[in-house]
Amino acid sequence: MAKKAADIASVLAFEKKLVVSDGYMYGTCWDDEHKVKAEPLKLVEKSVRGTISNRLKPAVQNDPAKLNAEVEKPNLQQVDSCALGMEQDTLKLAFTIKVLSGVEKPSACNNAAFAQSYAAAAKGYIEKTGFKELSYRYAYNIASARFLWRNRLGAEKIDVCVKVGSWEQKFDAYTYSLRDFTEHEEIKALAGKIAAALSGEEPYQFIEVEAYAKLGVGQEVYPSEELVFDKGNSRKSKILYHVDGVAAMHSQKLGNALRTIDTWYPDFASEEGTGPIAIEPYGAVTNLGKAFRNPKDKVDFYTLFDKFALGEPLASAEEEHYVMAVLVRGGVFGKG
């Protein structure tokens, strides 16, 4: 058995256990009859003449002539956009999730003693918790339609239809707050199916998700935005994601929403406006420019994982949940 930090594997990787597809976007109407007749949403290219809105230098701000000259410059842009048709009032987003077992087995590990020690710790966690807490939070994020991101805001109604084999259930997304993971009886069945796969009772579970958000006739919808590496050679300032012409959301963005379950970081209770964050080794939230799990505070993944994998007890069950959630996320965690 591995007993000290020197026994930590230098080559270590885990395959992700929540495998999410891209999300395909369709336009339809809210009534049940039209939900089955959803049509793929297409991207539209627009050429627009905007105004200068960036922060200007004090010399320009304080000189009316220079300010007027700057404002007169056209801000020409070519952008992608996507919207419902004038006969449609509802966005349909469809994607699938495969939940896999085997989190106790690294996909790569060059230290047999470490692999044995970690496997014992992971099996102990599974026997003690059955993955119930993590699975409930994943199921909660499905039921609450957190994965809609910006498309969730301002919707009049949102239904989430989930199918696992012959089992089906519909959730009213607005029943569930995005600020916490309050217990709801109707979510437990879905959570149980996720837990069955993560704990190894089932080899996998295949989940089909369809979300319907009533946004209003002709309203704009928001696919994922592509990252433009060579902006100098790109004629468009905003490029949206599509698959074979169908507007879509990245699997990574959907997966990020599903693993936004970390309420165990130290500042959760005191940080206003942050709420749950995505499971990350350092608690990174890029749009805030902050890492909520600083290694100096010994609450980052690597500090906790090294103890956990070597058989040392962690301070709380919450720390164990966090470590296992990172491993469900998957990644390369070696020393290189």
UniProtKB/TrEMBL annotation:
Superkingdom classification of source: Bacteria
Q: Name one Pfam family in it.
A: Cas_Csy3
* NCBIfam families registered for this protein in UniProt: cas_Csy3
This protein is called CRISPR-associated protein Csy3
Whose protein is this, by species?
Answer: Selenomonas ruminantium
Q: What is the lineage of its organism?
A: Bacteria, Bacillati, Bacillota, Negativicutes, Selenomonadales
